[in-house]
Amino acid sequence: MTHQYPSLSPEQKKELATNAQRIVATGKGILAADESTGTMAKRLQKINVENTEENRRFFRDLLFSVDPSISENVGGVIFFHETLYQKSDKGVLFPQLIKEKGIVVGIKVDKGTAGLNGTDGETTTQGLDGLSERCAQYKKDGCDFAKWRCVLKISDGCPSALAIAENANVLARYASICQQNGLVPIVEPEILPDGDHDLQRCQYVTEKVLAAVYKALSDHHVYLEGTLLKPNMVTAGHSCPKKYTPQEVAMATVSALRRTVPAAVPGICFLSGGQSEEEASLNLNAINQTPLHTPWKLTFSYGRALQASALAAWKGKAENKKAAQEAFCTRAKINSLASKGEYKPTGQADKAATQSLYTASYVY
Asked: Which of 27, 73, 197, 332 is 20 to 30 A off residue 299, Cα-Cα?
């Protein structure tokens, strides 16, 4: 029988568990504002805005300086390194601005994907070197949680056993390092929606991937009460000819999670994965209405699906700031309702909200 050596103190565990629960308190989810400079270029290009540091800062300031009541809908914000050290128009550092609203500050800590040689274009995620030191610094600079994204894909031979095992292990190692430094790790094993596979195939793969991830987290002695999961919803591939209802997506998603995610995990924050804003909200709502018992909070960690309407309203013009803020707050409120299974669509969703946000082989 293996012997457990001391890892985290009771105080460390209490802090991690408390912060994890704060992020996913009832009706709250996560704003993922951790797009890299390259990804922001693509977002801004769509509205014909130049990708300058000031434009990136202005847009994030627009999101972060909304009315403090946003804290009823958003429990955590994920930052990109650059954004963590930028200031609002009023000269306040962004992390301070977010904390003053009672929202938990998070940081993306991975360094992007790297190819796995001998596979069909599969990847692992890099960034473990120096991670402990970076986490310690981010903690000092006001962060209380972190995010690391791993990417898997579905095709004839994918995901391979190598990709599943390697990504599960790297996520567990990252989670362990975060917890040692007082950061709640968001564990993100994203299965891309690229392909023509059906709902059942995605469910099967999601179950296999999550089972491997939680085995690895256990092997690495990760304290589950102080973690959050950021998975894909179980959906058919983007090129699948058959279209499924939100209720079918919800049953497949919740069934997969019930079979693989321990009840000790406080919350599951879904990524939007290129769904339109409205689709992401409808699916989340259906997930929270399934008749199956769910021991965790089921909420959102959306980037594109919280920002698309705001970007479309802003168009890079300072005079549109208020309209963009209203668009963002509307989406946040809708997703807050969906996280409780209380969203009742009016059929009034505007063009920006129903537009697909899908990008093939999405790089964050």
From this structure: 197
Best CA proximity match to 307, nearest among 325, 294, 281, 321 = 325
Residues 6+ apart with CB under 8 A from 43: 35, 307, 311
Structure tokens at 60: 């994030």
- The reported pTM is 0.95
The SS3 of residue 187 is strand
CA 197 from centroid of its chain's CA atoms: 23
The catalytic site residues sit at 188, 230
Cβ atoms of 281 and 305 closer than 8 Å: yes
Which secondary structure element, helix H or strand E, spans residue 186, and what is its range? strand 184-191
Give me the residues paired with residue 121 across strands.
Answer: none
pLDDT in tens, 263-277: 999 999 999 998 999
On whether the CB atoms of residues 172 and 216 are closer than 8 A, the answer is yes
Peptide bond into 159 cis (omega under 30): yes
Please name the amino acid found at residue 127: G
**What is the C-alpha end-to-end distance of the chain, expressed in Å?**
42
Retrieve residue 47's tokens. Answer: 């509205």
Tokens of 256: 């997969």
**Helix 53-64 and helix 321-338: axis angle, to 10°?**
50
Q: What is the pLDDT of residue 351?
A: 60
Residue 27's identity, in one-letter code, is G
The helix/strand/coil state of 343 is coil
229-280 per-position pLDDT tens digit? 999 999 999 999 999 999 999 999 999 999 999 999 999 999 999 899 999 9
- Work out the number of other CB atoms within 10 angstroms of the CB of residue 71: 17
Contact predicate 237/193, CB 8 Å:
yes
The answer to whether residues 331 and 276 touch, using CB atoms and an 8 Å cutoff, is: no
